[in-house]
Amino acid sequence: MKIVVTGAAGFLGKRLIRALLERGSMTDSAGERRPIEHIAAFDVVPLEGIDDARVQVSTGDLADPAHLERLVDAGTHSVFHLAAVVSGQAEQDFDLGMRVNFDATRALLERLRALGQRAKFVMTSSVAVFGGALPACVDDSQVWAPQSSYGTEKALADLLLADYSRRGFVDGRSLRMPTIVVRPGKPNRAASSFASGIIREPLNGEPAVCPVDPRTVLWLMSPLRAIDNLIHGHELPAAQLSAGRVINMPGLSITVADMVASLRRIAGDEVAARIAFTPDPAIERIVNSWPGNFSARYARSLGFVHDDGFDSVIRAFIADASTVAA
Amino acid sequence: MKIVVTGAAGFLGKRLIRALLERGSMTDSAGERRPIEHIAAFDVVPLEGIDDARVQVSTGDLADPAHLERLVDAGTHSVFHLAAVVSGQAEQDFDLGMRVNFDATRALLERLRALGQRAKFVMTSSVAVFGGALPACVDDSQVWAPQSSYGTEKALADLLLADYSRRGFVDGRSLRMPTIVVRPGKPNRAASSFASGIIREPLNGEPAVCPVDPRTVLWLMSPLRAIDNLIHGHELPAAQLSAGRVINMPGLSITVADMVASLRRIAGDEVAARIAFTPDPAIERIVNSWPGNFSARYARSLGFVHDDGFDSVIRAFIADASTVAA
Ligand SMILES: NC(=O)c1ccc[n+]([C@@H]2O[C@H](COP(=O)([O-])OP(=O)(O)OC[C@H]3O[C@@H](n4cnc5c(N)ncnc54)[C@H](O)[C@@H]3O)[C@@H](O)[C@H]2O)c1
Ligand SMILES: NC(=O)c1ccc[n+]([C@@H]2O[C@H](COP(=O)([O-])OP(=O)(O)OC[C@H]3O[C@@H](n4cnc5c(N)ncnc54)[C@H](O)[C@@H]3O)[C@@H](O)[C@H]2O)c1
After folding, report:
1. What is the pLDDT of residue B320?
2. Residues in chain B within 8 Å Cβ distance of A159
3. Looking at the complex, does the CB of residue A19 fall below 8 Å from at least one CB of chain B?
4. What's the CA gap between A204 and A208, in Å, rounded?
5. B152: closest CA of chain A, how far (Å)
6. What region holds the NAD-dependent epimerase/dehydratase domain (chains A, B) (predicted)?
């Protein structure tokens, strides 16, 4: 079986590929379990640090149609589409965001439609599709009202995936992800970048800036659970997806203050003291438009998982950092 | 002031142009009332039957970018974008629907963005964006879950219009319209075509087929109210649009059986007896996925109007048919 992963060199992409290699087999759209023979890992930057004959690395701009025909072919059973321009960048460069987050997704779906094999297509949406007046706990029936271009592009992609699945062009599943923490490495241009930064930087002995109020409620998931859920989302039989293809993931609802308290518990006062609270109105506007809690009833009924507490999220990050390169 | 109307030769387009000519002036995005000097009426078929020096008729495919530059220019203050492929046709021809209902809308928005004058942009969405498990009365917070490609395309356009407005590229307003009845002329390829047909054909002495159960609840608006609301939606100051640019219109919630009873009251038993109930599963599937009732709280707070009862809708149709050509 051939699996294509876009955004393969990214935070989730790299972890997903490691997990797929470890599993060794996956279920195709006909429900048959097949050994994973090829993983086509595509990104603008080359995937490094994975040495396995099953992985073919290629690079390019996914929004350039020339790459698609080579990447996705008649032997492709599944696509994990993770390539994206992050929220902060999509807000600054509208055309880039639309081209990568929407047009490239559409081109991928069109390519799969043309091939006609109804491949599995798993992608990651975001809580940034929500906004406006929101209840304290967002239900699956909550309307989408994005307050950013990134959120708009994710919602556009969700609608397309749903219709391409309904028409039988692909077997799509869009997992609407919480903010994934703790992300290793450097800060990125996502508006949510600080959510990892306030844990990661202090643990690395560096200062961190928190641009939002400590009372801000975030909706989080650890990278471990995110990968579990991506694989689960792929494996679920289409017949179980009775309430649609776009699924609000379960998560952990927590205030920034409680995240800091957790860091203090695990790493001590000196580490927690490395966080400075300096409000940034541009980031606050975007982050405050995202819900901090979801019922995620549909996802729970389908068996998607969530983290039990933030202490274990930090502990997993510390353990991960000592074994996996960022 | 120059106003562009796409879909100008259509049911609503033609009526809107007549209403604009009669009004003589409209409010621009700066809030200034200006005389209507030009109406650029665009459609694939030529607009006929309106003889007024202010109206310039041109024809072409809106999805062909060549037309846009001529049609929409630096002098354009407002666009009423009504051109669309109807639901039944968009379901049969996926590519055509995407091209006209989504790509052409996007191209229009892009053209206005490039011109940079933040023109008013009014378009018509549809209750076909809703589907799946729905409460008896749909609230403004209800998630969109289209069960047709037409509904998907309308939702895609709604998301774009909202983000283009948020970014200040245009001053957009999308009115989510009920099914408009009674439509004169011939049946069309909308799944809702029967809703007009079961009134129009019997009144014209012809047999009509109703493809859905008489207990089916429909969400309706008369063409008179639709035009009032299109003009009201244009005139509303942007500052009042506190809960967004996509607005579920108020309407009339009525069963097919009550529509027939109304026809019987007004035109007699013999006329009502011309309706045969012959279920069509393809149409039933689409129509039953649409909600039959909405709270439309936001729209009501903004002053949008609805019909008080179905008898007056039928009477208005009879009066209209005797004065206006279809
Ligand atoms: N990490 C989160 O908190 C989070 C939350 C919700 C949704 N998501 C979504 O999950 C997916 C993966 O997230 P991540 O955290 O791994 O992001 P990431 O930024 O680490 O990885 C994305 C990858 O996409 C690649 N990419 C960007 N543009 C490309 C293009 N034009 N062609 C090819 N590759 C391109 C980047 O080089 C990068 O390696 C994204 O779609 C993201 O929007 C992430
Ligand atoms: N009538 C309804 O019940 C209803 C309900 C909800 C929404 N709407 C929407 O309101 C708008 C107007 O509806 P209507 O009932 O007047 O429809 P209509 O079919 O009578 O008019 C649409 C017009 O668009 C034109 N058109 C189609 N493709 C075109 C293209 N590629 N380029 C240029 N013109 C093109 C058609 O020739 C037609 O004259 C549409 O967007 C429709 O989706 C209508």
Report:
1. 86
2. 144, 146, 152, 155-156, 159
3. no
4. 10
5. 6
6. 3-207
Given a contact cutoff of 8 angstroms between Cβ atoms, the answer to whether A173 and A241 are in contact is yes
B221 ligand 2 Cβ < 6 A: no
Active-site residue (options: A150, A194, A294, A298): A150
Q: From ligand 1's centre to the CA of A109, what distance in Å?
A: 18
User: In this structure, how many other beta carbons lie within 10 angstroms of the beta carbon of residue B241?
Assistant: 18
- Domain assignments of chain A as residue spans, ordered by start: 2-177+222-250+295-306
Question: Could you tell me which of B245, B276, B102, B75 has the C-alpha nearest to residue B174?
Answer: B245
B134: tokens are 């729905």
How many CB atoms are closer than 10 A to CB B288?
A: 15
For the stretch A124-153, pLDDT in tens is 999 999 999 999 999 999 999 999 999 999
- Fold classification of B2-177+222-250+295-306 is Rossmann fold (3.40.50)
Six-digit token pair at B169? 């590229």
**What is this structure's pTM?**
0.97
Q: Residue A277 pLDDT > 90, yes or no?
A: yes
Q: Given strand B179-180, what is the order of strands in its sheet?
A: B179-180, B217-221, B252-255
User: Which B residues in the span 86-115 are in contact with A, Cβ-Cβ below 8 Å?
Assistant: 94
Count the alpha carbons within 13 Å of B280 in the hemisphere toward its beta carbon: 13
Q: Are the Cβ atoms of B162 and A156 closer than 8 angstroms?
A: no
CB A10 within 8 A of CB A82: yes
